[in-house]
């Protein structure tokens, strides 16, 4: 198989910050303030934002690899949802962010919402892209084990093999091709035994994150009520005929009402993987441009 042609990245790094004993990788593109802080979803990594960042001219952009993802260190499980938001708040503090736009997808949306409450001075806006913030009644305890995730293949010869294996499968077949290339290239790390590459977010961490999505500790509604940032809640369609890869939205339909200053944007033409499918739409949302449904 031929290695796909790559492009020059709009961001540089990583630099490393130690937060709660974890080494977190931070990627950045220089630009003017106010900055934009990007947080990815579960099992992804910061470089999945490259195509969005490329469509946001001039602004300083910062993308964080959450603990257990990308080039950040792998903590022992369980990976509690609240810890991701606490990490993001501390990173914003260490970087001296003020009046930033926080952009989070899925798990990253949950984390941006919590970080905005913890560090209100750091965030003027929060753009939550189909955040996994469930109806409050859902937080009753850990869910079942995700055995399919635990069985996921975790050894690859190189990233191009990974790319060719998944590119025609749902949900990846609907992704913007350059985003998929970034996901594959930066989503693998050298295996500890030196034999090939492994997923940067190991299956056991991904499965633990999904299992704990309904844990009471993940309920951040009390913090959401204290968020001062102007929030945009972006929701994908809630049900799909094709449900492979968690494509349906899990965002609470009434989430916007729980913020003191928020607007709801419903995009029924998009799946949960909106940043991967339509980076131009996400860039428009960040820049405040009107979205044509």
Characterize the structure shown:
- By secondary structure, the chain is of the alpha/beta class.
- The protein has a domain at 12-139 and 217-287: Rossmann fold.
- It is 27% helix and 21% strand.
- It contains ten helices and ten strands.
- It has helices at 50-53, 81-94, 107-118, 147-150, 159-166, 177-186, 203-211, 221-224, 274-277, 279-287; strands at residues 12-19, 22-29, 32-39, 59-64, 100-105, 123-129, 188-190, 197-199, 230-236, 262-267.
- The model has no long low-confidence stretch (mean pLDDT 93).
For the biggest β-sheet, the strand order reads 1-2-4-3-5-6-9-10
Distance between the termini: 39 Å
Which fold does the CATH topology of the domain at 12-139 and 217-287 refer to? Rossmann fold
Quaternary state reads single chain
Largest sheet: 8 strands, mixed
Strand fraction band? 15-25%
**Class of the domain at 12-139 and 217-287, according to the CATH hierarchy?**
Alpha Beta
Q: What is the residue-mean pLDDT, rounded to a whole number?
A: 93
Query: What share of residues is helical?
Result: 25-40%
Low-confidence segments, ≥5 residues, pLDDT <50?
none
Question: How would you name the CATH homologous superfamily of the domain at 12-139 and 217-287?
Answer: Alpha/Beta hydrolase fold, catalytic domain
Alpha carbon gyration radius? 18 Å
Structural class category: alpha/beta
Q: What is the H/E string?
A: EEEHEHEHEHHHEEHHEEHH
Put simply, the count of helices is 10
Shape category: globular
CATH architecture of the domain at 12-139 and 217-287: 3-Layer(aba) Sandwich
The total count of strands amounts to 10
């Amino acid at each position: 198989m031929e290695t796909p042609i790559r492009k020059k990245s709009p961001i540089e790094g990583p630099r490393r910050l130690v937060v709660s004993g974890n080494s977190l990788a931070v990627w950045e593109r220089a630009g003017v303030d106010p900055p934009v802080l990007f947080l990815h979803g579960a099992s992804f990594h910061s470089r999945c934002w490259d195509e969005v960042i490329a469509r946001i001219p001039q602004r300083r952009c910062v993308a964080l690899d959450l603990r257990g993802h990308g080039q950040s260190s792998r903590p022992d499980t369980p990976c509690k949802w609240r810890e991701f938001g606490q990490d993001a708040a501390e990173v914003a503090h260490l970087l001296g962010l003020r009046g930033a736009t926080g952009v989070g997808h899925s798990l990253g949306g949950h984390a941006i919402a919590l970080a905005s409450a913890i560090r209100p001075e750091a965030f003027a806006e929060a753009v939550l892209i189909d955040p996994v913030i469930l109806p409050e009644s859902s937080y009753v305890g850990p869910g079942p084990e995700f055995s399919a995730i635990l069985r996921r293949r975790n050894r690859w010869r190189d990233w191009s093999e990974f790319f060719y294996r998944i590119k025609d499968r749902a949900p990846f077949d609907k992704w913007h091709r350059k985003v998929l290339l970034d996901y594959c290239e930066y989503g693998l790390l050298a295996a500890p035994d030196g034999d090939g590459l492994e997923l940067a977010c190991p299956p056991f961490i991904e499965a633990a994150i999904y299992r704990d999505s309904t844990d009471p500790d993940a309920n951040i509604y009390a913090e959401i009520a204290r968020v001062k940032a102007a929030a945009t809640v972006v929701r994908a369609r809630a049900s799909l005929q094709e449900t492979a890869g968690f494509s349906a939205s899990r965002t609470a339909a009434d989430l916007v009402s729980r913020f003191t200053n928020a607007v709801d944007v419903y995009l029924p033409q998009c799946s949960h993987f909106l940043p991967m499918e339509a980076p131009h739409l996400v860039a428009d949302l960040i820049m405040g441009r009107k979205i044509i449904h």
